[in-house]
Amino acid sequence: MPTLAPSMIAADYGRLDAQAREALDAGAEWLHIDVMDGHFVPNITIGPGVVNALHPVANEYDALLDVHLMIENPERYIDAFADAGAGVITVHAEACPHLHRVVQQIQAAGCRAGVALNPATPLGHLEAILPKVDLVLVMSVNPGFSGQAFIPQSTNKIQRLRRQLNALGSKARLEVDGGVKPGNALKLVQAGADVLVAGSAVFGGDDTVEQNVEAFRSALTLKV
Ligand code: DX5
Ligand code: ZN
Question: What is the rounded CA–CA span in Å between residue 158 and residue 154?
Answer without folding.
Answer: 6
